[in-house]
Write a structure and sequence with these properties.
Blueprint lengths: L1 E7 L2 E7 L1 E3 L20 E3 L4 E3 L19 E3 L6 H11 L15 H4 L18
Antiparallel strand pairs: 1-2, 3-6, 4-5
The structure holds iron/sulfur cluster (2 copies).
Length: 127
């Protein structure tokens, strides 16, 4: 996680910055993102990946690689829940750095709304 200091009239405040994976990844899990990350900070669940916020260096390289636009900077509004999920599950799921085949029905789940209730807490295989 990189840090940035914001100047304010009253002093300086440090904010933690990271990218996170959101619900668009659920059941798609194309894994194009894992091979470009310079610090290997993706972790694999049964049906989605997460980013470890403390390891992400906020480079942004992975964001355009995701075919379903599931990777976002946590500065975007409304992502608090997904920042929590990324933080929590990156601690317990296995690291993944090599792309495998996506789920056979990944295309069927692209762009589907309300996938959050399909989130699985189970770990994936990792590398
Ligand atoms: S590229 Fe996108 S859909 Fe594929 S695993 Fe990464 S975040 Fe998920
Ligand atoms: S922003 Fe950079 S460091 Fe963070 S997960 Fe993406 S590729 Fe890795």
């Amino acid at each position: 996680m990189s840090q940035i200091a914001f100047g304010r009239a009253s002093g300086w405040k440090e904010a933690q910055l990271t990218y996170i994976v959101n619900e668009s990844c659920i059941k798609c899990k194309y894994m194009d993102c894992v091979e470009v990350c310079p610090v290997d900070c993706f972790y694999e669940g049964e049906n989605m990946l997460v980013i470890h916020p403390d390891e992400c260096i906020d480079c942004g390289v992975c964001e355009p690689e995701c075919p379903v636009d599931a990777i976002k900077p946590d500065t975007e509004p409304g992502l608090e829940k997904w920042l929590e999920i990324n933080t929590q599950y990156a601690e317990v799921w296995p690291n993944i750095t090599v792309k495998r085949d996506p789920p056979p029905d990944a295309k069927d789940w692209e762009g589907k709304p309300d996938k959050a209730n399909l989130f699985s807490q189970n770990p994936g295989c990792g590398d």
